[in-house]
Amino acid sequence: MSPEKALVIHPNQNSRERLSSLLKKEGYYVDGVAGVDEALVLISENSYQLVLGSFPEKGGFFSQLERRLPSTLKIVVVDGEGVAVKREARLILEVDLVEKILPLITLQLRKEADLTSEINKLREEVELFKRTKELALIPDLDELAVEILRFLVELAQAEGGLLALFDKEKGKYALKGWQGVLTDDVEYLSSLIESKRIKELLNKDEIKLVRGKRLFEKGIFAEEVTSVLFVPFLVDEEKLGGVVLAKLAKEKEFDPERLARMSKVVPDLARAFKNSLALSRTNELVIKDDVTNAYNRRFFERYIEEEISRCERYGLVLSIIFIDLNNFKRVNELYGHAIGSRMLGAVASRIIREVRSIDRVVRYGGDEFCVVLPGTAAEGAFRAAERIKDSLESTPFVFPGTKPTYITAAFGIASYPRHGLTKKSLVNKADQAMFKAKKEKKAAIIIAEE
Asked: In which domain, by residue range, is 426 found?
């Protein structure tokens, strides 16, 4: 790529015009000044690739340039005796020979500019490669999701974004991470991911740029969003999820060169995502209940502590729902424990179906379940409990050799930090609310007292 701008410094107008004409023939945009003071002003305001002129030794102007200009700048010195074509040199040539040597200087500059550009590109490629390899070593799926989103937001120079995981069992996208948004309403952000337009764009098999103001409402980001980038994660045509990145009105459009670099790293990120998913599913075999496929009590004890710490660190909210099935002992008495276990599995499936993928359904013990809802206040948990209650009560459970069985449950809700700041206090509050619901109406939903 040829140099863009050059500066000519010469007290004689004819000489200045002659030198400017030579530079223009070589493809430069040229500024011309008569003296040192004007030159210093322009040099401070512009990025010149070449400076050519007559430099009086008085005042040490050449020395000033040496100190103040970038080391990549080439200075051609022309005076009454000749020309110096190197920063450190004083090669004496006739002034008339400038016309002959200038093309050589320009050619050298072009070679050096191209070489520098290639070196910088290689350095960027190496850095991107190192970052993607570092990300691929993160085993935890939640941490990997956060770091991938942070990396892509930085790479695209976006304001922020959302990362979604595709849930094969439910056939829909589930929110897994977010950055740069002004709301902590996870339920609302999850609904955005599930909106028809965003799902359609995430389902594409290539990176897609969309301009428009309707994908995100005002208030989600710092300013109005004018363009959105959709980055799907695909491995061997298998849909894993994707990232949605936002640009604001005050910012420039997404840089095409950055998008080209992103397209190179996304396949590796997708593979890292797939490997982490596989590891996560393997780990789930240890932390899942065999009967219901819900998480087990051991998992709950560790997970709730981690979530409370995260809430405390980032100022987030968290809710838990305790669910106690009514008269389930009667099912075991009538049909035996084998049918009872199958029915518990069916109950868990309905509960899981009614909550988000980021929520955790736990078999707390016997016929008790607990749902952990990150980023959800008590009111949002109440709505989730209503959905679960309707799902359990609306359709009977039927198995071979059994009559249609309707199952009801009592629900108790507690939230961090509203009802407690520790695992023990939250569990106690939710348990007390559930006991109150069971005592008063059996099939009721009650939020804990503050």
From this structure: 288-447
